[in-house]
Design a protein that fits this description.
The structure is a single chain. With 453 residues, the protein is of the alpha/beta class. The protein folds into three domains: 38 residues, no CATH class; 255 residues, no CATH class; 101 residues, no CATH class. It contains 14 helices and ten strands. Strands 5-4-1-2-3-8-7-6-9-10 form a ten-stranded mixed beta sheet, sandwiched between helices. Helix 3 runs antiparallel to helix 8 and helix 5 crosses helix 9. The longest helix is centred in the last third of the chain and has 26 residues. The protein is globular. The two termini are 43 Å apart. It binds zinc ion. Zinc ion binds next to helix 11.
């Protein structure tokens, strides 16, 4: 479980030599300090300060999760824990998940959900992760593998943190639990969610999360979204579990070193699957169809590594492009009426029809000659393509749109706009890469070329 920090005899010799040199410098400082030439000792003082930084006894930083408990509260049951991190602003952060009280018997009370949710933050903050509770042995083994995989990924504009190998400590391993053996899928109303709804065999339950793409403070958008999702579940004959959580608040801002949501959203969803693991044998994450080997929070190789022995967690339809998924759902009446792709929700709208994701979906539907059937969008305004800034992860989807649109005069004008936008974005991405050290630059360019050329 622990990794010993070995130093070879040669390294030790090198460190001793350095220490000796610094001691000599410090003696010189003491000598000069007593003389008239105090001012010229400034650079030497800096050397001494550096030596303190290099050789001070470092306490291993730790993210500690304690007080894991469940409590009933006004029709909801709350699973919570206190998160303490030495490296960041997360001190005594009360992390919680809530589900309706009627599902309380489906909550797994071990530390699995918290270990899954906090692994990536701990790796970003260069801390060990201590869970004051038992966790699943297979999950523990999988988290070690997940770290290996993530550490092997190159830096991109999405995966932009240098991660640290984190030791996971817990209070032993949980006993295998009995589950009710259901199959579930996360559902936000988007293209991937609808694809899962229509294509996963034996799917019984949809899980809708408040606190991820809809902020907890935005009750209006939550209610506007919950009503259609209830309707979709009802008409598709599926059960719906609503989960509330403040996990994304912990990830945000200084708490976790400005952790990018794109990096952690798969782990965040998987943590909720673990919270409800007494109900499910399999829970699927709607995959966003990113290129197969691209580092991302939801990624083909990473997703199954959030599983444990009696709970399979995986993404569904990973190899499929968004166009294929749209083609599969375009004739579904519920999708036409309720498809929800917008995360910007300008003016509290269900789909703003202005943001990158709205525009991309609208143009893909236009290429499939189905945009008119989707009344959830406003009229398409192609001029808005000039204003969007997709990440390199999305470039290939926009290139697909150029290929998919036919050659009507209206579409030729749209294609020109997309080409100009991609050119601008590629220059910006390469410019950012140019400011990185050489080895990262080479890695990044190789990876980006694979994707965008
Ligand atoms: Zn939008």
């Amino acid at each position: 479980m622990t990794v010993k920090n070995h130093r070879t005899a040669r390294e030790k010799q090198g460190i001793n030599l350095l220490k000796e040199k610094i001691r000599q410098k410090e003696n010189e400082i003491l000598f000069l300090k007593s003389s008239w030439s105090w001012k010229i000792t400034a650079p030497l003082r800096k050397t001494r300060d550096l030596s303190r930084i290099l050789f001070r006894k470092q306490k291993p930083a730790e993210m500690r999760v304690s007080g894991i408990m469940t409590k009933n509260n006004k029709g909801w049951v709350r699973a919570s824990a206190t998160v303490n991190s030495l490296a960041a602003q997360a001190r005594d952060f009360a992390l919680w998940f809530e589900i309706p009280e009627k599902y309380s018997s489906h909550i797994n009370k071990s530390g699995n959900a918290f270990a899954t949710a906090l692994l990536i933050p701990a790796m970003v903050l260069k801390e060990d992760l201590t869970i004051e509770e038992k966790i699943s042995k297979t999950l523990y083994q999988n988290l070690v593998q997940a770290q290996k995989l993530m550490l092997s990924w190159p830096e991109t504009d999405v995966w932009h943190f240098k991660l640290h190998r984190t030791k996971i400590k817990c209070q032993g391993f949980e006993k295998e639990e009995k589950t009710s053996g259901e199959v579930g899928s996360f559902f936000s109303g988007g293209v991937d969610s609808f694809y899962n709804l229509l294509k996963i065999k034996n799917l019984k339950t949809l899980i809708f999360v408040w606190g991820f793409d809809i902020p907890l403070k935005n009750k209006k958008i939550f209610n506007n979204t919950l009503a259609p999702i209830k309707e979709i579940a009802k008409q598709s004959n599926k059960k719906l579990i609503v989960v509330k959580t403040n996990l994304r608040n912990l990830y945000a801002g200084q708490n976790c070193g400005y952790l990018n949501w794109d990096m952690a959203h798969g782990a965040a969803l998987a943590s909720i699957a673990h919270l409800l693991s007494s109900r499910f044998r399999a829970v699927y994450i709607p995959s966003s169809g990113v290129p197969q080997k691209y580092p991302d929070g939801v990624q083909k190789d990473l997703d199954p590594l959030w599983s444990k022995s009696n709970l399979k967690i995986d993404s569904f339809g990973t190899a499929l492009k968004r166009k294929t998924k749209l083609a599969a759902i375009k004739d579904n009446a519920l999708a036409q009426k309720y498809l929800r792709v917008c995360f910007e929700n300008t003016d509290d709208q269900y789909n703003c029809s202005k943001c990158e994701k709205c525009l991309r979906t609208m143009l893909q539907l236009k290429a499939l000659k189905s945009l008119d059937k989707f009344k959830v969008f406003k009229r398409l305004n192609p001029k808005l393509v000039d204003k969007i800034n997709p990440s390199s992860l999305i470039f290939s989807s926009w290139e697909d749109i150029i290929r998919e649109l036919d050659n009507s005069s209206e579409n030729i004008a749209i294609k020109k706009k997309i080409k100009a936008m991609l050119k601008r974005r590629r220059l910006a991405t390469n410019d950012r890469l140019a400011r990185k050290p050489l080895w990262q630059k080479i890695k990044g360019i190789v990876w980006n070329r694979k994707l965008v050329s």
